[in-house]
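Minimal example, chain plus zinc ion.
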Amino acid sequence: MKLLNTILDIIFPVNCFSCKEKGALLCIKCLSSSREAERESANWVFPLFDYRDLKIKKAIWLLKYKGKRKLANIFAEIMYGRILEELADLKQLENFNESILIPIPLAPRRQRERGFNQATLICNELVKLDKNVNFNLEKNILIKPKDTEHQARIEDRSKRLKNIIGSFVVKNKELVAGKNIILIDDVTTTGATLNEAKKTLKQAGARKIIAFTIAH
Ligand SMILES: [Zn+2]
């Protein structure tokens, strides 16, 4: 599939769906000029863009549901800059060192259906950019063993919370004990997923936790 995509890219070069510029499905110029996240998030959560910006909405949809995995690289480039900005302060003020990067996991069925976890794709690229200078990637610490209903399909806020409670498990507690953690997800809506992941990691002994998402 990957090879086929590469071949297709050569035969049919991609254009930015927003400005039509050749090269990437969404160019870095259009992405950088997208609407920044402005809705309030918890003080430990850093979303990059406003999900109401149609460019962002479309790009995330293409990544998750149309398998346009390369979009993860473009998101990661912007996200990496933002992570470094935050880390610069946190390292000095909160002793936020030797951190671990953890993607919000998908439940087994969704992972099978999609064939990939978009948060993991972003993490893979972040690690390439970082070359293990600021953080290490751990893909199998936080897992989501059971299939839950899709959060986005549940309208009622309290049902959303119930749906996600207890859904994460930490596999190797000794790897998170006393560690600083950077969680990565694609979209945060109510923050319920990130809160639950944080709670689970805290119970496993994690030190400080922050999170970055593409959009809110
Ligand atoms: Zn563009």
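The beta strands are 45-49, 99-103, 135-137, 142-143, 169-170, 180-187, 209-215. The mean pLDDT is 92.
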